[in-house]
Amino acid sequence: MKPTARERILTRLRQARAVEAVYVNPVRETDKEWLARQPEIGDLAERFTREQEAVGGDVRRVTSWEALPDTVLPWLGRQGVASVMTGTEPRLEPLRARIAESGRFALHRYERSAEEQGDEIFAVDCGITTSRGAIAETGSVIVVPTPEEPRLLSLAPAVHLAIVERARLYATLSEYIETGAYQAEVPSNHVLVSGASRTADIEMTLVVGVHGPKVFLVALIG
Amino acid sequence: MVPDARKFKRDSGRALQDPALRHNLQKAMHTIRGRRNERFSELNDGAALQWIGNAIKQRSLARLPELLEQLEAKLTARGVQVHWAETTAEANRIVLDIARRRGVKLVVKGKSMVSEEMELNHFLAGHGIEALEADLGEFIVQLAGQTPSHIVVPAVHMSKGEIAELFHRELGEPYTDDVAALTALARRVLREKFRAAGMGITGVNFAVAETGTLALVENEGNGRMVTTVPPVHVALMGMEKVVANLADVAPLMRLLTRSATGQTITAYFNWLSSPRRSGERDGPEEVHTIILDNGRSAIYGDGELRETLDCIRCGACLNICPVYSRIGGQAYGSVYMGPIGKILTPQMAGLGEGGHLAGASTLCGACYEVCPVKIPIPNLLLRLRQEGSQPTPAGRTLLKGAGAGRAVGEAMVWRGWRVLHDRPAAYRVFTRLLGMLGARIPQRIGPARSWSRARALPIPARTTLHELLRERAGQ
Q1: Of A1, B102, B302, B382, which has the highest C-beta tally within 10 A?
Q2: Residue B397 carries which DSSP code?
Q3: Which of A27, A194, A210 sits opposite B55 (nearest CB)?
Q4: What residues in A contact B54, CB-CB < 8 Å?
Q5: CB-CB neighbors (< 8 A) of B221 in chain A
Q6: Structure confidence at residue A34 (pLDDT)
């Protein structure tokens, strides 16, 4: 049988590898130590907030999950949001109840497939999701879409509000990766979100809000 | 895109005479270089980080076949279909087969340099499938019927005025040169397309063997849209993109975004590992990965040129390059431009067609200085120049097109130079002769003509340095 492209490529690579490398990296012997060197981050919540604000994000500190609605409702009002969508995440039910009570926003729920609910998801103003935490050094929120909080919830609406627990702040991406949380689970999708979607493709001029959210809000709990 | 030496000479000359292009490039390169330097100076040891990047890439490449197999196994176990392509023609055929099976008429694309290698848009159009670029810069370049002039900022050669004209003409919208309005227009046009498309295509920035993860780096959200909304996602990756562990990604990412756009991180760092799982409400039903060779395994087989595969496509070498920042990306006439293009293109296309690009360098070494993974670009350029014009030394793998750039005239000049410098008597006679001729050396004919076209020919001094020193010693 004729070898497949896969077999031919792998055979070529195995043969090619025998050729000795000309350039030897000077840090190879010690790079474990080098890799372990991490930058000084300082207070995690402060750094996270500073980094988020540097990219136009808006971070509000909230004392507890119970206090969340008191912060979120007026905040969304000021953003000019008319409709809000969440998934089926149980921790957001109290917030949903308060939003419904207020009567100020049309409340939607992402609970069926994107094929069924597509028009609704793309029309809604604001998506609210929880998160797996955040990375202080870069101001990145770890968003892991699940059946309870699907991918489009943090992508299609013009405003994305993410909720981050302060206890789940990591100093750097390396530190987060070392926890092994991702490797243990390998979710189908895992996104570090650092601010609203943006571009500088025209004359290096920054424009916020291209294909994803135009506004990124973070409620930092604890 | 087949590189062509004569076309390069013509187009780079034209680019130098184009004040608008020079202005656009100068402004953009200045901005992007400044941002990159700022982000690097914040690191407590940026230079050390570059060597860490190099170490990670070398270590990954040392295990390339095993890592690719591990990646394939992990992805396959989670339902991602992995394809291998030796050539761009094979890769195109694989995409087409998937598209046909799924009845796809419209494809939306994230930014992918591999798809440029494949000339995928053109290929799909030939089979009645529209491929639409969703990255703003790529969208602009596609509307203009051009190819990207920069790896990271595809439309960097255009001013907002030109883009405004283009949008007005092609999209039939009222004229505006407000950058925010132009961006909003692209958002509106493309939103519809994400939902209408039957397939999304992206590149891959990092592929992690340990976890079977495809990682995409982007700012606009188009990459997330393309990998979430259409029912099929096809990820195109050059085989050198694989790293062993997720932990390897953190330092490379730290280097990539700082080098590319001067950001500490991009808006989205998107990790994908499977199609939509049972119970999930969105995401593609099918995910495919195409692992492309296209000359990479041959590059891998050379112990020196192998370093070319370290590249993480940040574009920092373009921004710093005195040649690129003056002629721009399109003059190169190849998919990859600037310093990385000058080493990659001659190897992919062969020295016969691409060898001239290795000559388009001042060898100033700025690219090596900024390269986040320390590719010794100037050394590799010298190597490619040498093999472009000389027979390959014994014991070395023959590069495609080696010796193709050999010019009889040039070879004779260098042979003469060697004779003169080997024989002191001949050298003295020759310099004396030059000194006597002095300003009478003809400038408009013969070998001095092409030199003196744009600069003054140096006039040999009447007295040589040797003579001056002897005189002084005699006094």
Answers
A1: B302
A2: P
A3: A27
A4: 25, 27
A5: 155, 197, 210-213
A6: 63
Mean residue pLDDT across chain A: 94
- In angstroms, the separation between the Cα of residue B188 and the nearest Cα of chain A is 9
Q: Is B214 helix (H, G, I), strand (E, B) or coil?
A: strand
Contact A197 B221 (CB under 8 A): yes
DSSP B78: T
Tokens standing for B187? 């958002």
Tell me if B179 and A212 make a contact (CB, 8 A cut-off): no
Query: What pLDDT is recorded for position B48?
Result: 87
Q: Is the pLDDT of residue B278 over 80?
A: yes
Order across the sheet with A106-109: list the strands: A58-62, A215-221, A159-165, A126-129, A83-86, A106-109
Alpha-carbon gap: A215 to the closest alpha carbon of chain B (Å): 12
DSSP state of A112: S
Question: What is the CB neighbour count within 10 angstroms for residue A6?
Answer: 17
Average pLDDT over residues A107-127: 97
Give the helix ranges, DSSP H, for B308-350. Answer: 316-320, 324-327, 338-349
Cα distance between residue B441 and residue B413, in whole Å: 17
What tokens appear for B216 in the block? Answer: 């995409």
Closest by CA position to A221, among listed A56, A22, A63: A63
* Cα of A136 to nearest chain B Cα, Å: 11
* Cβ–Cβ gap A6/B84 under 8 Å: yes
> What digits encode the pLDDT tens for the residues B198-207?
999 999 999 9
Q: In B, which residues are within 8 Å of A139 by CB distance?
A: 265
Please answer whether residues B182 and B163 qualify as being in contact, where contact means their C-beta atoms are separated by less than 8 angstroms: yes
> What is the rounded CA–CA span in Å between residue B112 and residue B110?
6
Q: Tell me whether residue B1 is exposed, middle or buried, using C-beta atoms within 10 angstroms of its C-beta: 0 to 12, 13 to 18, 19 or more.
A: middle
- Alpha helix positions (H), chain A: 5-17, 31-36, 44-54, 68-78, 93-102, 114-123, 173-178, 181-185
DSSP state of A56: T
The answer to whether the CB atoms of B179 and A203 lie below 8 A apart is yes
Residue B268 CA, distance from chain mean position: 23
**8 Å CB contact of B221 and A188:** no
Question: How many residue contacts between A and B have a Cβ separation below 8 Å?
Answer: 264
- The answer to whether the CB atoms of A17 and B64 lie below 8 A apart is yes
**Are B251 and A35 within 8 A, CB to CB?**
yes
β-strand partners of A134? A141, A169
**DSSP helix/strand/coil, A125:** coil
Convert the pLDDT of each residue in B204-218 to its tens digit: 999 999 999 999 999
Q: How many CA atoms lie within 13 A of B57 on its CB side?
A: 33
ipTM of this predicted structure? 0.96
- CB spacing of B300 vs A16 below 8 angstroms: yes
Q: How many Cα neighbours within 13 Å face the side chain of A214?
A: 14
Secondary structure letter of residue A24 according to DSSP: -
For every residue of B128-188, DSSP letters joined together read T-EEEE-SHHHHHHHHTT---SSSS-TTTTS-HHHHHHHHHHHH-PPP---HHHHHHHHHH
Nearest to B224 among A40, A117, A191 (CB): A191
Q: Which of A211, A201, A127, A124 lies closest to B193, judged by CA?
A: A211
- Confidence tier at B393 by pLDDT (50, 70, 90): low
Residues in chain B with CB shorter than 8 Å from the CB of A212 are 220-221, 224-225, 267-268
The verdict on a CB contact (< 8 Å) between B68 and A209 is: no
Residue B238 DSSP symbol:
E
CA dist., res. A158 & res. A125, Å (int): 5
Which residues lie closer than 8 Å to B39 by C-beta, 6 or more apart?
B258, B262, B263, B264
**Beta-carbon separation of A210 and B219 below 8 A:** yes
